[in-house]
Hints:
Layout: H1 8-11, E1 15-17, E2 22-23, E3 32-35, E4 42-43, H2 46-52, E5 65-68, E6 74-76, E7 93-95, E8 100-102, E9 109-112, E10 117-120, E11 126-129, E12 134-137, H3 138-141, E13 169-171, E14 177-179, H4 180-188, H5 205-217, E15 228-233, E16 239-244, E17 260-266, H6 295-304, E18 316-317, E19 351-352
Parallel strand pairs: 18-19
Antiparallel strand pairs: 1-2, 3-4, 3-5, 5-6, 7-8, 9-10, 10-18, 11-12, 13-14, 15-16, 15-17
Amino acid sequence: MDISNISEEELKETYFDVDKDILGCKHYPRACKIKAACCGKFFTCRFCHNEKENKHDIDRHATKFILCMKCKIPQLVSNQCINPRCETIFARYYCFVCKFYDDTPNKKIFHCQDCGICRVGSRDDFKHCSRCNMCLGVNTFDSHKCMEGTYLNNCPVCMEDLFSSRDSTVPLRCGHPLHFECYNQFIKANHYQCPVCKKSIANLANAWKRYDRLIESSPMPAMYKGSTASITCNDCHVKTMDMPLHFIGLKCSGCGGYNTTVMSQNVQIDQTLANDPNQSIFRVNEGDDVDQVSDDEEDDEDDDDENQDGVYGVGEYEGDEDDDEELDYDDDDDDDNEDEEFDSAEADEHNENN
């Protein structure tokens, strides 16, 4: 291959760690660049290409040529420089299918034939679900909620790719996945509904008990006597018609939870009590969700619900920065542990993509 038509920028060495003289880029340590078949330019990795050529993504499988960053010799894809005076090994891990190189010491990576990409972790720790089209941890595979093609969608929080993301993912109890970091930020912002289907993302039984106590100790002002609302439950989908209105929450008659949405309301106001300074004015709008945990309870929820019941980690794609660890959330029948705990639980290793 003629080197004369390769730009100085393409020939320039790039570094994963300049201080330690480790070649690569901010994404991966490696000693070669790949030639994008789409635009014919050399980039250190596919992410470097996609960030610069933001109008299109690289087809990793179409890569045929690489450039040794030490001797500047362009050559066919392999893991060792063909220059007999160089013979540099480009990376500790090399996938000839994905044309992926990663020189990270002791990093476990495997190629999943069904996913068509490389995953971070040990092959023995994961099993591919053909319906979800994703590798899942073997310890949670049998219990996961299968949803066809769900990982082909974008994360509903950040709207970025899930299937080939370098960030690990977390499937919620309902089956909809989020990036692990998005999940953590979601919880910190005191959101307890799936952003897709509005189902509770944890077992909030203890929170509902607190709602019961609050409602019992905080009767509605007399001016609202006779006010009713009709609701639908976001968790069990049971509809409750013409139930007494309460400003703290509206309880599902099916599952007993407060993750409900107002369908309609009939607010009765006794005008003779309208000017009573002890009467609180309150109105629930149709379509409002009435399951939000009150400010006084948010701290309790953070303490009580630190692990999400029924949530399991998914591995990372080649490129995941996180160490591959599993989310292990157990259901607890005891009242003390009834709530799922939102912990800094760690996702199964595997969500990395070359």
